[in-house]
Write a structure and sequence with these properties.
Elements: E1 6-10, E2 22-26, E3 32-33, H1 36-45, H2 47-56, H3 60-65, E4 70-78, H4 83-93, E5 96-101, E6 120-130, H5 137-143, E7 148-155, E8 166-174, H6 186-189, H7 213-234, E9 262-273, E10 276-285, H8 292-304, H9 312-316, E11 321-322, E12 332-338, H10 340-345, H11 356-372, H12 376-380, H13 383-393, E13 409-410
Parallel strand pairs: 6-12, 11-13
Antiparallel strand pairs: 1-2, 2-3, 4-6, 4-7, 5-6, 8-10, 8-12, 9-10
């Protein structure tokens, strides 16, 4: 195929020994450009030059159009285990040439141990590239199943997976699991709401109001929980004891995936779902292992109840210790991802969705509570056996590698609930 619309000419050097600047120009109007990309943008914008190029060569329209790409980033919510389905659905509906998802592990260098496909999502991020104009949330939602919703969209491209600098999970912790807070009234916990919305949708600190005995014991229980969460953030060890055991070899305590730091863990909000008070615990980190949020919350609750020692996280994240940790119900959901590069440029804001994201979050929380809320794990798990094993493994120094396999401390898995 012949050169369609440009010639290459050397520019006049402005000084002796100055480098030669090569320009391209349109043969139909004479306009000069610094690059071929700029030239092709001109051809797409100029109807006269594009028509002249098409008259000269019938293949010109295709050559010009194939360089035009449409990009957008979508905020997506979906039910448990629907992350891959949401990605496939958007790829199909958008005729996408590329789709990236914050909870995926397709990028080079990302361990399969960090896959979060089984978790529900309130605000997952998917970036789409297509050769066709991209539809808006309303149009997409007409063709999507009810358990997958596009909540908002914004122009621009970001690699949703590899560019994410922080990911967040929320865990709905029933207040009744905390020692000393069983009788705190739901109406007292829900008072004092503010309108401030945080980065991942939580609205206020988890502080019960003062004024009566029930709120006093609730405040004390929450302080104890926060102490346990701070201990989780302070640890610098490996999280191999806090992941799905089915990952097996991917859970090496020496692997980068198991040593991903926890950036923050806090009691971020107090809500009432189905008449029962819950604490929304927010966990932030670069990445999470499957079941990590649940098992971390299980250990934190047992620490608050006084059933595990204060150094439980330090011992359980040592590379030479292998212990079975509790697995509370699946009351967690993916709360979102942060992109520092966009935040610096001020491009991380999502357009107003008319309350769609809040409505989805409310429905998602209700579904999780209906399907998974149970305190049976507190009775089924042998916390005393774990406490004894932690005490036996305690020794000077932290994060020590075992000299021999017989030095690895292994606790028996508790029997399943009857």
């Amino acid at each position: 195929m012949r050169v369609l619309a440009f010639v290459v000419v050397p520019a006049v050097a402005t000084a002796l020994h100055a480098p030669t600047i090569v320009k391209t120009s349109c043969r139909f109007c004479g306009a000069a450009f610094q690059s071929k990309n700029a030239l092709f943008r001109h051809l797409r914008e100029s109807d006269a030059c594009a028509a002249a190029a098409a008259a000269e060569d019938p293949r010109a329209p295709a050559a010009i159009a194939e360089r035009k790409q449409h990009v957008a980033t979508y905020l997506v919510g979906y039910g448990a285990g629907k992350g891959a389905d949401a990605e496939a659905a958007l790829a199909s509906l958008c005729s996408a040439s590329s789709v990236t998802r914050a909870t995926a592990v397709a990028a080079r260098g990302r361990s399969a141990a960090l896959a979060l496909g089984d978790a529900a999502a309130a605000r997952d991020v998917l970036s789409v590239v297509s050769d066709h104009a991209l539809p808006g949330p309303e149009q997409l939602n007409r063709d999507l199943p009810s358990d997958i919703r596009v909540l908002s969209s914004r122009p621009g491209r970001v690699h949703a997976e590899s560019s994410a600098t922080q990911r967040a999970f929320h865990y709905l912790l029933p207040l009744c699991w905390l020692a000393g807070a069983e009788r705190a009234g739901a109406e007292r916990v829900a008072e004092g709401a503010t309108t401030d919305v945080g980065k991942f949708g939580v609205r206020r600190p988890a502080h019960a109001p003062r004024g009566d005995k029930s709120s006093d014991v609730t405040r004390r229980a929450l302080r104890q929980l926060k102490t346990a969460l701070r201990a989780a953030v302070a640890t610098t060890g490996a999280w191999h004891n806090f992941a799905d055991p089915e990952l097996r070899g991917l859970l090496s305590p020496f692997a980068a995936a198991t040593r991903t730091r926890l950036h923050r863990a806090r009691a971020a909000d107090t809500i009432v779902v189905g008449g029962e008070p819950f604490v929304v615990v927010e966990l932030r980190g670069r990445g999470f292992l499957p079941q990590q949020a649940r098992r971390l919350m299980g250990v934190a609750v047992l620490m608050q109840r006084g059933e595990l020692p204060a150094d439980a996280f330090d011992v359980l994240t040592r590379r030479d210790v292998v212990l079975a940790t509790p697995l509370p119900p699946a009351l967690e959901y993916f709360a979102g991802a942060r992109y520092s590069a966009l935040e610096v440029k001020g491009g991380d804001a999502w357009p107003d969705d008319g309350g769609g994201a809040d409505a989805w979050l409310s429905d998602l929380r209700e579904d999780l509570v209906i399907n998974a809320n149970s305190d049976e794990w507190l009775r089924a798990f042998d916390s005393q056996a774990l406490a004894d094993a932690v005490s036996a493994a305690r020794r000077t120094g932290h994060d020590e590698a075992p000299a021999a396999s017989e030095e690895v401390v292994v606790a028996p898995t508790p029997p399943p609930a009857a």
